[in-house]
Amino acid sequence: MSKLCRYFPVEMWCFILLTLLTGVLSSIRKGPSNYVKKVGDTVQLICKTDTNSCEGIDWTKMEGSQSGTAFYRSAYGQLNPKKFANYVVSSDARDGCIVTISNLSLTDSGVFTCSEERNQIEEKKNAVLLVIEASPCSPRVLDAEIAKGDSVSISCSVNLHSDYIKPSSVQLVWLNSNFSLRSIASNESASSNLTLPYSSKAEQNETLRFRCSLSLSVNQDGTLYDQSSPNIEICSFPTRTVLYPVTEIKFNENQEQFAKGETVLCKAEGHPPPAYEWKDKAGNVVSNEGSYTITEKSSPGDVFECTAKNSVKGVPYSTSKSLIVVTEFLETKALRKELSSASSPVTPTGLLVAIVGLLLYEI
Predict the structure, then answer these.
(1) What is the pLDDT of residue 99?
(2) pTM higher than 0.85 for the full model?
(3) Is the peptide bond preceding residue 9 cis, with omega within 30 degrees of 0?
């Protein structure tokens, strides 16, 4: 508020009066945004102005409880180049006055203010810049092959330069592939260092994609940075699907007896996905597909065997299951369904189909 307003009983009316007399009190349309960045990153703090320039704009940085240190004044240009060597202030025809800070370090954390004074009225816009040092995931790389029962032990850590910015809370979270919570470490006292280990045994049918993320809240001299969701990624691992041996084979409808012309689906679980092989009673390979159609040349009593195979960490695994051809005609399948249904009596249609099949068989 203007120094002149001190002599007015109501400062609000003074403010309105000065607005009417001077027009636009400040050319600042929007202040810079809050950021959390990692060491080595680059950030741009943008002070949007009506003039689309740095005309009349001053920049200061406040570190902890210290008073602000000016590093740019419109009348003089950039100040203290030794301390702020990686700071570049420039005008942009679209955005206004921009501070670009490259190769960020922990000491670049602070509260940044862009300000302008017109007619003894100062307009200020603050923003928090928090620079964190994130260690690589430990270990740096997960095993290329993780099998069922293997132990998975990982860790991530982060360092905050709390001398300048003191978060009110800090939290690390391990998330899995569907972003559900796996493990959590929090420090309400907001120590500058926080480490989060995680350990588990790999489960069958599990997909592993671990990501360690940070959430925090900062309240610094009236400037609030609230990161309520853990979306500041510290480190992550690529996706790994847990390996496991082939499981028991199942045929369609859990049948073991089939007729000529029927297609049999041989199915087993496993990762890597199993390869299939069908053999006849003489041991000849008749198919390398998961499904097999019993040929017209087959006779009742013929046996076919399906084998599913995979390999986990170089160790081969396999499982087999056989089927028996019991009739020559696919039509008798209808009768088998009727007879196998405990809740339904044999229908006239089913019985007729069976009789026709038997008559044809005799012929």
Answers:
(1) 95
(2) no
(3) no
